[in-house]
Amino acid sequence: MIKNFNKIIATGRRKSSIATVELVPGNGRFIINNQSGINYMQDNAYLIMQMQSPLDFLELKNKFDIQITVKGGGLVGQANAIKLGISRALCLFQNNYRPSLKLKGFLTRDARVKERKKYGLKKARKAPQFSKR
């Protein structure tokens, strides 16, 4: 997490997605991997709402331009990583946002990841059918 005079950089993670968020005072532009946020999230209203929820909660939607670089995972994991990155960047911007964001659960990193496959099993926990004879 880096705080410059006019640019705040924070990182969010979810599953195998990593999002680097740059927050700059502006007029509400959302750019993800050099594409518009709506275009990148394939016009999925739920994912767009999910990403912007910290800004909507604090009523800061049109106060910042947000430049995001995101890698890995699928769109849902990336949207949640972006949400965490934006929340962390807002806390760096103004520390008194922290209690309300924490209370709403925006600063909690969801640590659930796919469980690895074990030998002798078909998937992480699914065993082959048992045959008595």
From TrEMBL:
The gene is rps9. GO terms for molecular function: RNA binding; structural constituent of ribosome. Pfam families: Ribosomal_S9. Keywords: Chloroplast, Plastid, Ribonucleoprotein, Ribosomal protein. Its main location: plastid. This is Small ribosomal subunit protein uS9c. It is found in: Plastid, Chloroplast. GO terms for biological process: translation. InterPro entries: Ribosomal_Su5_D2-typ_SF, Ribosomal_uS9, Ribosomal_uS9_bac/plastid, Ribosomal_uS9_CS, Ribsml_uS5_D2-typ_fold_subgr. Belongs to the universal ribosomal protein uS9 family. One of its GO terms (cellular component) is small ribosomal subunit.
